[in-house]
Amino acid sequence: MSNANVNNKLPKHLGLIMDGNGRWGMHQAHSRLFGHRVGLQHILTVLPICYKLGIPFVSGYLWSLENWHRPTVEVAHMRHLLQTFGPSLVRELHQQGVRIVHSGKRTGLTAEELAVIDDGVTLTQNNGPNTFNIVFNYSGRDDLLHAVRRIAAQGVAPASISENLFSQMFSTPLPDLDLIIRTSGEYRLSNFLLWQSAQAMLYVTETAWPDFGQRDLEAALRYYQEALEYQAEVRAVAEG
Ligand code: IPE
Ligand code: IPE
Ligand code: MG
Q: Strand pairing partners for 202?
């Protein structure tokens, strides 16, 4: 695909459900943990492609609240990766002028783990416009509850609770998602950014996250553009 093609209607906010690391690791080296390490590093390969194509806001699903129920060894490895790989991910993104934000709970993380995330957010807060939202320790339902609790705590009158107000109540307010790509073939949202995905297009590829590259991204963008064109045609017909 030429750039002229994809430059047209690009998503402003792309969600990446980066799935399949475990299966990929088993396939490559008989180790799910290997897959997690390579999968995290792979973020640094894919993000620059997104930004270069002109997608300014990317949310990457790294770890859900449900993922803590995985086997102890895998959970410990993920915590270890956050400590060891997190700071270099932050440094690299900062060098590229990327702003980092975080969606997810703070509870359940150690002071050291929170420091990795908070340092990344603080260090890069004046960067932009390209932004990477680290979706870590996250549950879409929990995020909705958090928003509801904040509204209740502020004593907002029910009639004043608008979609606009609600959108401002999340742990990190985000633009709506335009396109969500899920790697590794499964057709699920897995509790990813539920409010923000209301109108998002969904694209599922069989490719596992560590193998996901420019061609896959361009195929997803083609799908996105065709779906938008189709929607516009349907609207035009409906309006006569
Ligand atoms: C996604 O890969 C990354 C996560 C940390 C959840 P998985 O670990 O879910 O890989 P599969 O889906 O089991 O292959
Ligand atoms: C979704 O993948 C979450 C992440 C990529 C972090 P999972 O592998 O955790 O999702 P389920 O368990 O298949 O729904
Ligand atoms: Mg998975």
A: 180
Pocket (CB within 6 angstroms of ligand 2): 17-19, 61-64, 67, 186, 188, 190
Q: In what order do the strands lie in the sheet with 57-64?
A: 99-103, 131-138, 57-64, 13-17, 179-182, 201-204
Q: How far apart are CA 180 and CA 228, in angstroms?
A: 14
Place of tokens 């806001």: 57
Beta bridge partners of 134: 60, 102
Which residue minimizes the CA distance to atom 1 of ligand 1? 19
The answer to the question of residue 36 being in a domain is yes
CA torsion 145→147→151→154, rounded to 10°? Answer: 110
* Total number of domains in the chain: 1
- d(CA 20, CA 211) in angstroms, rounded, equals 10
Which CATH number is 38's domain given? 3.40.1180.10
Give the nearest ligand 2 atom to 188 CA: 14
What is the span of the domain harbouring residue 184?
A: 9-238
pTM > 0.90: yes or no: yes
pLDDT tens-digit map of 3-52: 434 447 999 999 999 999 999 999 999 999 999 999 999 999 999 999 99
